[in-house]
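Milestone 3.1: sequence recovery, worked example.
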């Protein structure tokens, strides 16, 4: 059996290759370059070259062949262009999920197969299992990694059965500390290399600068919404009454619960006044009972719900968070404090065409509901929720209100045994 390891120069993929070699497999390594541009990145121009150098040293140390492939065209087309498009629509994409679905287990797998590989192995902290269906055909499952602090199954939530049939995750049963120990014991050049951060294969970026390659900066207003806005907002009050009533929920009630407040009813009037000894005439906004214009920004598309950095708004005792954006009016809405009502929601919606089941036979029928554990971002602790399938969409109703439910991100649901069942775009 011939296995291609996606060797990134990091410790995880290095140990994955080492373990497979020790197990007697015919192993070779392939390093992929997926990005050339440096605009907006926060690292040196040649970081990928350093990663390649380390990866090549690791391959030499282990004693396996090393290959290089440039997939930058595919990466830009399938991942980065998708990112730009989603941000332009005011949504927050997850490029790492797309990178795995479209690059590592698609374009990269295709290149590995051309070199004779039967499988592609990566350094993901997740596990794979097999079972037989009613027809005796193999079915592949993804399970959370053993290390709860490093579980990376979330990033693989869009893989299908064909991709999983060719995938291997050699370190999924190990703790990160064990992986480091194995690397040091084997004296691998990557043993003490820091984990990569930021966008998959791009690295850490100044997101606004990075996005400005295609998205224009346009000055707009930052609106701070006060908590007393919500008891007088019709949609918010209707949502609270539906939640107080409880299940069963009608289709319309679920749609109402999943609808985010848009704050379009907030309007501000200006007034003129005279300032200073010379009584210079100036303009200011009139006091508003529910909100105020708190500052300026350079483009609503550069902000995401839950963000607290880059707002440049002072004078508050508690942190300020983005609670909403409006691309059409170029407004960013913020609220003070982690428990601000604008940050919290109990229900989200996934359109039928955006639902993905890891094992197709596990899909839910119209009208069915199930209890699962769900996360709406990487590293978020699993949250108990009820999934309710309707003809138009899947609705996820959480037991407890969730912070920063963000359009464009992926919601992923798991069975109690850690099996990842499915995912979808919020």
């Amino acid at each position: 059996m011939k296995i291609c390891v996606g060797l990134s120069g990091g410790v995880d993929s290095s140990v994955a290759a080492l373990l497979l070699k020790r197990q007697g497999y015919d192993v070779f390594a392939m390093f992929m370059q997926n990005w050339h541009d440096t605009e907006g990145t926060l690292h040196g121009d040649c970081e990928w070259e350093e990663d390649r150098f380390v990866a090549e040293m690791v391959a030499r140390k282990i004693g396996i062949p090393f290959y290089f492939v440039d997939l930058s065209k595919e990466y830009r087309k399938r991942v980065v262009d998708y990112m730009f498009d989603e941000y332009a629509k005011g949504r927050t994409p997850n490029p790492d999920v797309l990178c795995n679905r479209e690059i590592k287990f698609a374009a990269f797998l295709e290149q590995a197969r051309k070199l004779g590989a039967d499988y592609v192995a990566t350094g993901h902290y997740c596990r794979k299992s097999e079972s037989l269906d009613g027809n005796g055909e193999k079915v592949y499952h993804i399970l959370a990694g053993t290390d709860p602090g490093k579980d990376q199954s979330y990033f693989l939530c869009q893989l299908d059965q064909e991709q999983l049939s060719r995938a291997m995750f050699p370190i999924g049963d190990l703790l990160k500390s064990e992986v480091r120990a194995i690397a040091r014991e084997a004296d691998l050049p990557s043993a003490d290399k820091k984990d990569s951060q930021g966008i998959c294969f791009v690295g850490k970026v100044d997101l606004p600068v990075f996005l400005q390659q295609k998205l224009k900066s346009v000055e707009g207003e930052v609106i701070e919404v006060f908590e007393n806005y919500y008891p007088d907002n019709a949609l918010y009050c209707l949502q609270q009454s539906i939640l107080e009533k409880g299940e069963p929920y009608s289709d319309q009630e679920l749609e109402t619960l999943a609808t985010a407040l848009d704050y379009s009813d907030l309007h501000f009037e200006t007034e003129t006044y005279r300032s200073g000894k010379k009584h210079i005439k100036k303009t200011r906004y009139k006091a508003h009972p529910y909100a105020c214009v708190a500052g300026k920004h350079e483009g609503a598309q550069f902000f995401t719900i839950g963000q607290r950095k880059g707002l440049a708004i002072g004078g508050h005792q508690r942190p300020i968070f983005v609670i909403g954006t409006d691309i059409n009016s170029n407004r960013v809405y913020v609220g003070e404090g982690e428990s601000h009502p604008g940050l919290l929601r109990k229900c989200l919606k996934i359109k039928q065409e955006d639902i993905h089941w890891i094992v197709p036979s596990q899909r839910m029928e119209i009208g069915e509901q199930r209890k699962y554990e769900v996360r709406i971002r990487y590293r978020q602790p699993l949250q108990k929720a009820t999934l309710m399938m309707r003809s138009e969409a899947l609705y996820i109703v959480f037991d407890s209100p969730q912070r920063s439910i963000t359009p464009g991100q992926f919601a992923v649901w798991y069975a109690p045994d850690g099996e990842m069942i499915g995912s979808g775009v919020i």
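The CA atoms of residues 100 and 156 lie 6 Å apart. The chain has a mean pLDDT of 92.
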